[in-house]
Amino acid sequence: MLTSDLLSLIAQRRSIKQNLLKPDPLPREWIEQMLEAANWAPNHGDSEPWRFSVFAGAARQALGEAFAQSYRLGIPAEKYNPLAEKIQAERVWLAPVWIAVGMQPGGHHPEWEEVAAVGAAVHAAQLVAASLGLSAFWTSGLAVLHENTARFVGLQAPTKLLGFVYVGHPSIPWPRGVRRDWQSKVEWHWDVPSNTGF
């Protein structure tokens, strides 16, 4: 792949909200390609801390029920809203695939390094999704991160649930990305002659 093609793909990646996705099913091999890419993420000491659980088709019913239950368990009684619980139960039908993102620490490195590795893994999966014309949105929130949801997807301490990536075809034109100039976020300390590279 040319560097320009890779940069274009990175700039093309989008996270599109669930209510702007088509419910159409996705080929399993596309999700497999995303997760294979995730497996090549950099990680300290080869800990490979990422853990994924994939929900599609009718399996989303139980996931929605877990989200609703986690909302009930996590929200203070005075803030409980039955409509919000219903939304949690039904949101799973807005995207055809939901991927739980877990982090299993290797025990030899700081936790932030393991979380960063999982972030790199998710980004790799998102890039493959973008190459297939898919949005892959990493979502969190009370119902998604609650320990009840973590147990539902099979994660037990010290493994942590870091959210879900929901995947689908956009129902809207592919959004145009906006970023501030990268050079405004960089300080150079390049103390070598400019014509010698590194």
What are its keywords?
198 residues; alpha+beta; NADH Oxidase; 4-stranded antiparallel beta sheet; 7 helices; 38% helix
Provide a descriptive summary of the structure in words.
By secondary structure, the chain is an alpha+beta fold. It has one domain: 3-Layer(aba) Sandwich (NADH Oxidase), CATH 3.40.109.10. Helix content is 38%, strand content 14%. The chain is built from seven helices and four strands. The chain has helices spanning 3-12, 28-38, 60-74, 82-90, 111-131, 142-145, 147-152; strands at 50-56, 97-103, 135-139, 160-168. Strands 1-2-4-3 form a four-stranded antiparallel β-sheet. Helix 2 runs antiparallel to helix 5 and helix 3 runs antiparallel to helix 4 (82-90). The longest helix has 21 residues, at 111-131. The radius of gyration is 19 Å and the shape is globular. The two termini are 23 Å apart. The model has no long low-confidence stretch (mean pLDDT 94).
* Proportion of residues in extended strands: 5-15%
**Could you give the order of strands across the largest sheet?**
1-2-4-3
The helix/strand order is HHEHHEHEHHE
Q: Give a count of the beta strands, DSSP E runs of length 2 or more.
A: 4
Total of helices: 7
Question: Ends: how far apart?
Answer: 23 Å
